[in-house]
Amino acid sequence: MPDETVPDGWNSPEGSDSTLPAGSEILYSGRTDYAEARIERDPACSSGRLLFLDGVAASYIDLDDADHLEFLYIQRFAAMLGVLWPEPQPLRVTHVGGAAASLARYLGESRPHSSQLVYEYDGALVELARRELGLLTFPGLKVKTGDARARMDRRSPGSADVVIGDAFVGRKVPEALRGTDYLSQVANVLADGGVYLLNTIEGPDLFGARRHAATLQRQFRTVFCTTDPDVLAGRNSGNVLFLATDREKFTFPLGALVRVCTTGSYPDQVIRPDEIADFIGDAQPYPG
Fold first, then answer.
1. Which residues contact 108 (CB under 8 A, 6 or more apart)?
2. Which of 25, 124, 152, 225 is 20 to 30 A removed from 271 (C-alpha atoms)?
3. Could you report the per-residue pLDDT of 135-188, keeping only the tens digit for each?
4. Under 8 Å between Cβ of 55 and 12
């Protein structure tokens, strides 16, 4: 969460309820602890639900099929994990930012015996997801509310294979979850060979993405980035995804990662580890 693309026929994140496509239905509208929430039924899939937070598409859940990943950035994350650790290999995953936990549900189905922690700041959002979006704790999944940074600080070193950063205030990663000190916490939690996946939303100037890249490069040996070509060219705003790791280059499957990101119906453009410095330019890391 969030995603700058939504299923065909749905509102854009800035759309109004009056423009709902034929057959769509608002199932819930109300406030969580920190956001205005709305849930719509997918007119093309009776079990599909789209969650908006403050008008931004935050999660898509198929109540009947955890393998149905509608958002492209979630598909990318799942594919990248599949390259690094082929399914059904279980993983220890920490999700910082949960919304309706679509990726956690997918990993629970595709990688039985995985151990997953979801940290979500908005307790009322978790309750809404339980009540309206079928979020049930299952073996290997725990959902914790409150301050994710404080929880990360209490974690044992090497206790996660993957940390996924998918937390937002509006369209920005919260200050507490983007700086050099926080990334030091993330690196401490990661086991040898572990990876940090980060979702960001960027405008045409890509200034925030460059700062995120600079911050990641300060902490990790290898940084990889993937995004829509129009976003990278400054013609559009959208999701910019990062993968950061201390894996040595000879253990980093760059070719396979490039393939899963640049093939299919909506191919991305990637920034390889040896291109990251040029992408960063004179951008400075986020502090804190």
1. 66, 114, 116, 138, 140, 141
2. 152
3. 987 889 999 999 999 999 999 999 999 999 999 998 899 999 999 999 999 999
4. no
> SS3 for 269?
strand
Contact predicate 96/165, CB 8 Å: yes
Q: What is the pLDDT of residues 11-28, one digit of tens each?
A: 333 322 334 556 679 999
pLDDT of 95-138, one tens digit each? 999 889 999 999 999 999 999 999 999 999 999 999 999 998 78
DSSP string for residues in 27-79: EEEEE-SSSEEEEEE-TT-TTEEEEEETTEEEEEEETT-TT---SHHHHHHHH
Strand, helix or coil at 134? coil
Q: Which long-range contacts (CB under 8 A, 24 or more apart) does 266-272 make?
A: 266/72, 266/228, 267/229, 268/76, 268/226, 268/227, 268/228, 268/229, 269/226, 269/227, 269/228, 269/229, 269/232, 270/224, 270/225, 270/226, 271/213, 271/224, 271/225, 271/226, 271/232, 272/224
| Structural domains in the chain plus CATH codes | 72-280 (3.40.50.150)
Looking at residue 23, what is its pLDDT? 64
